Amino acid sequence: xxxxxxxxxxxxxxxxxxxxxxxxxxxxxxxxxxxxxxxxxxxxxxxxxxxxxxxxxxxxxxxxxxxxxxxxxxxxxxxxxxxxxxxxxxxxxxxxxxxxxxxxxxxxxxxxxxxxxxxxxxxx
Length: 124
Prior knowledge:
- The protein is α+β, with helices and mostly antiparallel strands.
- The protein contains two helices and six strands; from the N terminus they run E-E-E-H-E-H-E-E.
- The chain has one domain: CATH 3.30.1330.40.
């Protein structure tokens, strides 16, 4: 059995997907970009963009009764590996203890021309 998570204060999906789905003790988070709940992108610089993405992840986790510490696996998609260090600097501030397992990959393109997208899996 699965349950869809659609927080009212989250960005609306740009395509036919569910922002997050819970099943059992797992929460699967769709890729998040720097889109706010009003449909505005926050891309003034890579740090601002990354913070918005991680805050969006936090909104989904909170709707499931969790926080960033519950993430066990994350995938970071970058438009260019030159953003890697700056993204890591911001990303690391969201984890006090053990950060989740993850990979970071550069891809040819991301939705709406963004520079970073993050998806993840959390466990209760």
